[in-house]
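User: I've been going back and forth on whether these two constructs are worth ordering. Before I decide, could you fold them both?

Assistant: Sure. I'll take them in the order you sent them. The first construct and its structure tokens:
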Amino acid sequence: MIQLWRTVPVQTFDAEATIALGRDRPELLAVAQLALDAGRPIGGRDVTRELLGGLPEHVGWLVIDRCVHLGLLQQRGSRGPAELTEGGSIALEHGQVLVAEEGVFRFYLAADPLLDAALLHVAPLRSASAKESRDTLYEAKKGNAQPPQGGPPPNVLRQVALNQVLLSVVNGSMFEVRDAPRVGQAGPGGNVRLDLRWEPDGPAVVLVSSQLPGPGDEAAPLKADFRVETPKELRSISYDTMWTALVEFASEVPSAMLTQWRQL
């Protein structure tokens, strides 16, 4: 078994943005499941008959409109029956619905080949400074004040793709950056520990663990405890290739000789 670990620094950045956060919405997931089970576009009558105890059909259409707005369903025209989207399938897989929120967030960032996504977690910033920033931003949108000042986001945050579903290393919940931050302030730093574990007959997995600074002046630390499936950097590498490279590096024995020894 290959088992390695290292500590990676984490930086945080506090900024105003639009983030879709995974929420428990079983009533909406039930509509997505209905569309999946039907295998065809569903209408208001389907929703009321199967899920709402026979309420008037227009109520079912209101529910469908809500699911379309959240990206769970899509309509082929401006109105009419709707079918499951890729986002709806992802929501069913993880048991959460992405709901967009505007506000000041803390972004947790770490760049490492063992992490497919550099953005580890996003949390609403709960602090007096965050409230001031939201109030200033609201006044700026009305034309009564200047937007809050700060610095540009770090490069690693600017490279995060928009509208890409990510999973938090803190609690495994889904989130998605809808509107990237343009200005903000650096927050407190931290570290995460990455444990690579690879059985000869199984996939490589990475365990992420640590305590990260909480999203607020008096917020409790966030405990990171998450299992990451095989990172993309390792998907094209076999266990034997990795084992040989590690032993060759540690022992300075040529790989050809190691291969010969293993065949004895």
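The second construct, handled the same way:
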Amino acid sequence: MADELMVATRKGLFAVAPAGGGGWGVRDIAFKGDNVSLAFADPRDGARYAALNHGHFGVKLHRSDDRGKTWREVATPAFPAGEPASVKTPAGDLIPPAVSLIWALEAGGAAEPGRIWCGTIPGGLFRSDNRGESWELIRPLWDHPGRAEWFGGGADLPGIHSILVDPRDPRRVSVGVSCGGVWVTTDGGASWACRAQGMRAAYMPPERALDPGIQDPHRVVLCAARPETMWAQHHNGIFRTDDGGGSWREILGVEPSTFGFAVAVHPREPDTAWFVPGVSDQHRIPPDGHVVVTRTRDGGKSFEILRRGLPQDHAYDLTFRHALDIDSSGIRLAFGTTTGSLWVTQDQGDSWSPVSQHLPPVYAVRFVA
């Protein structure tokens, strides 16, 4: 069971740990005042990673090998010098690629020590085999003709935000792209195919709504015990696949909303998943000002609305795609919001306890064993 949380915020990386009386509290802060856009803990060796976005001064990546006591800057993924203009702007222009955000970090397989995968804006997938000391651009995906259709969603440029490594076969890796669908490799990155058939893009003209390569999955996760089952919180719905992305099924009629960014799935029960709903598109607030979490235990046939301990009056908390997490026990979950609130549950969401309601805007929450 996890014993700590890494909480990446607009003004630092917070270490949150269990406190007296069964609650949780802030234990420490690193990078105080800096924009920490993503946090990641490698379950294989305990290393922790923090991605920083310094705006005009660029993107940086840091690693800690002593549980966050000290940090050292490592290499930042970068596109090769002289890379031709191939990134489409909202105006339709093509510009040379440059990493503006580290949007995903994930460990390789158990038998791949040192391997880390990284997704970026603008849509680059990188791999390191030495714990972030150097990075390689995965050219077969970057050079795939299908990438020409990718475009920005909430961000101006397309980006890779979800990386799923099959625990049974680490050569099988899936990535979620906004907006570009879900892409899968079964040979460690040497070849790729779009696997978003069945997803529906309501924001596109009707004749293109079902095109796999222009879908906007906000977040994609897999069940560790049955990796062929994946859940996606899409821009305009909730989708599930039971064949590794070969076909996706839309989950309809979910109250109070099927819009949102975050999704978590139970590590051993593929039919159990959690979502934090919001209101699209321009509002980006909880439905009716009520912060709730929705949970299904039967694969999407029915949903419960979980609200005990969450604010139900004039609440305007939005949860970003990396700001909901579940620990290895499948019992504890935590999520943070744009208004600086952080909640933890120790009963799968039946009740929630506030850790803090005064943090900076929360970008990512990760349990650490």
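Notes on the second construct follow. Helices lie at 139-142. The radius of gyration is 19 Å.
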